[in-house]
Design brief:
Structural class: alpha/beta
Strand content: 15-25%
CATH superfamily of the largest domain: Metal-dependent hydrolases
Distance between the termini: 47 Å
Helix content: 25-40%
Number of helices: 14
CATH class of the largest domain: Alpha Beta
Family: Belongs to the metallo-dependent hydrolases superfamily. MTA/SAH deaminase family.
CATH architecture of the largest domain: Alpha-Beta Barrel
InterPro entries: Amidohydro-rel (IPR006680), Deaminase_MtaD/DadD (IPR023512), Metal-dep_hydrolase_composite (IPR011059), Metal_Hydrolase (IPR032466), MTA/SAH_deaminase (IPR050287)
Radius of gyration: 21 Å
EC number: 3.5.4.28, 3.5.4.31
Pfam families: Amidohydro_1 (PF01979)
Cofactor: Zn(2+)
Number of strands: 16
Bound molecules: ligand LTUXU72L, zinc ion
Number of domains: 2
Length: about 425
């Protein structure tokens, strides 16, 4: 079945034009003035704009179950005292219901693809497939510097990578958690497995100053230097946070084609103590992308809000109002994210994946409408999303996703049951 979107504003990182979009199967076939055929689904685009789906490159989807459970704490205390004890009680079904709720929230706020790091990959993949989303799912692990734990984890990761291959629109990945929970042997093996199974690697890097200092004390060298020595730095890697990197480390990561996921809301809320050195990343053409991190440290998955936080944080932290302008953060949240996930998406052009978001311009915050990109970044919220198409299929229409009440109810029940265990 083909879809024709008529008379719509078309906005991506390269252009803002008016016209029609024609979708055949899961790809954009034509953009411009399109006639269409008899059996097409026709969507009236008047008063609307179509943008590429937003790509959330760092989250832990099922952690929506912990939304507002532990707030106003520093990172390590938050993890060790509140989050990890609760995660120890999670069952696969909780993760399934949590991920479904996260997908619902993401679709309703214009995200079409996300990069997840959590446990129980089959539960996550099932939820993603049922919701019609696209996701990179990493089999996450900690080894806590224990040889036996590492061996067991690697076996599990390899099994998970095989299982993930059977799911449509799922990109498999390995998810070693962070430098303070995974040994260098574990990181080296992670990249080797990713290469063997043509997967990505998803990792937390340089989130706090303490992490950087501890690493130097333990290994006698900087973290990026050590990662380079073990062959960990390449285009398969999506490194979340990266707020405590030197300019030389940024240069090296750019040379190795690493992808960075910037998570400004989580960084500000957990008070990690610095802001992304975006100017240096831009100077060396490092692929900067955008993530929400989990709803336990954000506390939502709204990428519209995240775009605004990212650009405001840069301007405020570096006292530079011209830094990270609206067009740049829009490209970061669309095209750069798609590049990191290795998918041909993020532009509205023939041959690109039909991962598209139609927004309703009849909102007070889009009025009077002097500059649509500026309105999308600085004024909009996720509630402007009207219709979402992922892989050529309509997954949300007129602001509604099928079964949304039930998804919320089941996730609420799972969260309450988890807390009472
Ligand atoms: C191994 S699954 C992912 C693991 O990461 C934890 N987590 C969530 N947010 C953060 C963050 O900002 N920094 C470090 N770790 C984080 C999550 O609770 C899971 O245990
Ligand atoms: Zn995270």
């Amino acid at each position: 079945m083909s879809i024709l979107i008529k008379d719509v504003k078309i906005v991506d990182a390269r252009k803002a034009v008016e016209g029609d979009i024609y979708i055949e199967e899961n790809r954009i076939a034509e953009v411009g003035e399109v006639k269409g055929k008899k059996d097409d689904i026709v969507i009236d685009g008047k008063g609307k704009a179509v943008i590429p789906g937003l790509v959330n490159t760092h989250t832990h989807a099922a952690m929506v179950l912990f939304r507002s459970y532990a707030d106003d704490m520093p990172l390590m205390e938050w993890l060790e005292k509140k989050i990890w004890p609760l995660e120890a009680k999670l069952k696969p079904d909780d993760i399934y219901h949590g991920t479904k709720l996260a997908c619902l929230e993401m679709i309703k706020s214009g995200t079409t693809a996300f990069n997840d790091m959590y446990f129980e990959v089959e539960s996550i993949a099932k939820a993603v497939e049922e919701m019609g989303m696209r996701a990179c799912i990493s089999s996450a692990f900690f080894d806590f510097f224990d040889k036996q734990r590492l061996e067991e984890s690697l076996k599990k990761v390899e099994d998970d990578l095989k299982k993930l291959r059977k799911f449509k629109n799922v990109i498999p990945a390995v998810g070693p958690h962070a430098p303070y929970t995974v040994s260098l042997d574990g990181l080296k093996a992670s990249m080797e497995l990713a290469e063997k199974y043509d997967a990505l690697v998803h990792f937390h890097l340089a989130e706090t100053k303490g992490e950087i200092e501890e690493f130097k004390k333990k290994y006698g060298k900087g973290i990026v230097e050590a990662l380079n020595e073990i062959g960990f730095l390449n285009e398969r890697l999506i490194a979340a946070h990266c707020v405590w990197l030197s300019e030389e480390e940024i240069r090296l990561m750019a040379e190795k084609n690493v992808n960075v996921s910037h998570c400004p809301a989580s960084n500000m809320k957990l008070c990690v103590g610095s802001a992304l050195n975006y100017s240096a990343m831009k100077k060396y053409s490092l692929n900067v992308t955008l993530g929400t991190d989990s709803a336990a440290s954000n506390n939502n998955l709204d990428m519209f809000e995240e775009m605004k936080f990212a650009t405001l944080l840069q301007k405020y932290h570096y006292s530079a109002p011209t830094l990270m302008n609206a067009a740049e953060i829009f490209e970061i949240a669309t095209l750069n994210g798609a590049k990191a996930l290795g998918i041909k998406a993020g532009l509205i052009e023939s041959g690109y994946l039909a991962d598209l978001v139609m927004i309703d311009l009849k909102k007070p915050y889009f009025t009077p409408g002097h500059n649509l990109i500026a309105d999308i970044v600085y004024s909009a919220k996720g509630d402007c999303v009207d219709t979402v198409i992922i892989d050529g299929k309509v997954v949300m229409e007129g602001g509604k996703v099928e079964g949304e009440e039930k998804i919320m109810e089941e996730a609420r029940e799972a969260a309450l049951d988890l807390i009472s265990r």
